[in-house]
Amino acid sequence: MSLKSKIYKFLRIWNDVDAVRKGRVGKRVGRRVAGKGSGKLLRKLFK
């Protein structure tokens, strides 16, 4: 695992914790699901 990927993983966890503290977990989860769905759709379109 490279340093860059470790930093990204750490920041993703940090942002999850921050979202829990601020009560914005629903928004974050929704955006993540939407992003994964649109990514899969685009992958199928340009395959």
UniProtKB/TrEMBL annotation:
It comes from the Bacteria. This is Uncharacterized protein. It comes from Allobacillus halotolerans. The lineage of its organism: Bacteria, Bacillati, Bacillota, Bacilli, Bacillales.
